[in-house]
Amino acid sequence: MKEHTILVVDDSRTNLQVVRDVLEKDYTLQLAISGEMALKFLSKKKPDLILLDLMMPGMSGKETYQEIRKNPENKNIPVIFLTANQDEDVEVDCLNMGASDFITKPIVPEILERRIGKTIELEDLQKNLQGKIAQKTQEIETLALQAIGAIVHTLEAKDEVTQGHSIRVAGYSKAIASEIGMDAKMQEQVYQTALLHDVGKIGIPDSILKKKGRLTPEEYDQIKGHTTIGANILSAISAIGYLEDGARYHHERFDGNGYPRGLSGEEIPLIGRIIAVADVYDALVSRRHYKEAMNEATARKELLSGAGTQFDPEIVKVFIRLLDKGTIDEIKRQTTLPEENVR
Ligand SMILES: [Fe+2]
């Protein structure tokens, strides 16, 4: 079974015949008598290598080469030029354009065979390496995501009252992301980022987090620090660069009166504006150390009254739509542990 396909482009039928005689036993060959014909073939199939005559009437080898490379899908197909010209400048020119190699005519069968063999071998190695890199990258990401899972568990274990909050906020945020048209990959990023929005609370004393009465201004300042602490923790996960914005910006307000930076409107990264709505909604309808759970209708009103001041009005609109569709309830049902329902 011949593994590799080579596209041979030459205006001389004699040359095509010579190449065919030499390479036919090892490769599947596609022969083209002009640049136009080569391009037509390339629009249907991608060979593993292109052998391209430089001097052709009509579309020259150089022009054909440039046309081939215009299509990003053809960017990585190695091209070897066939040149009758012994002039060194032409050869340097070919290599500068990005050709893998050049072979001078008249064709010496052994040289043709060896050069093609080497280029194909190199190409295979490179593809193999790319595959391995992709696999390793995937492994690193999986590892980082497992670490995230462990961090979230640590945070949730700290406080039984807020248990499940991170997972619900992540679910709601992902639903918002999907509703505003983000693709699946972005939605996943939003989910992971939202999952970790409160991770900085690891650095806040329990005496403050679980306090039943009013917080003193100093205590409130300390609580506010969870945004920056969280962002700093997450910036250490360098394999995933997008995580820290969620922690940093989820308490910014649309009118600029939030923290830690006091950004306003679209200055606040979108992820911050998304998590803000998801976070507050979940906090409203859940029990907290300092308050009882609010019913859904009242929470809805709260969100609407904060649209444009506390929240991005567009995100509130989207969230209300998700509430109407029952999406939010469904996520809540799926992510809430059975014992949490007993209140
Ligand atoms: Fe928070």
Overview of the molecule:
- With 343 residues, the protein is of the alpha/beta class.
- Helices cover 57% and strands 7% of the residues.
- The chain has a five-stranded parallel sheet, sandwiched between helices.
- The protein is elongated and about 95 Å long.
- β3 (49-53), α3 and β4 (79-83) form a beta-alpha-beta unit.
- The chain has two domains: 5-131, Response regulator (Rossmann fold); 159-341, Hypothetical protein af1432 (Orthogonal Bundle).
- It has 15 helices and five strands.
- α13 (296-306) runs antiparallel to α14.
- It has helices at residues 13-23, 35-44, 61-70, 88-97, 109-158, 165-179, 184-195, 206-209, 217-224, 226-235, 244-249, 270-285, 296-306, 313-325, 327-335; strands at 5-9, 28-32, 49-53, 79-83, 101-104.
- Fe (ii) ion (FE2) binds next to loops.
- Fe (ii) ion (FE2) binds at residues 197-198, 226, 250-251.
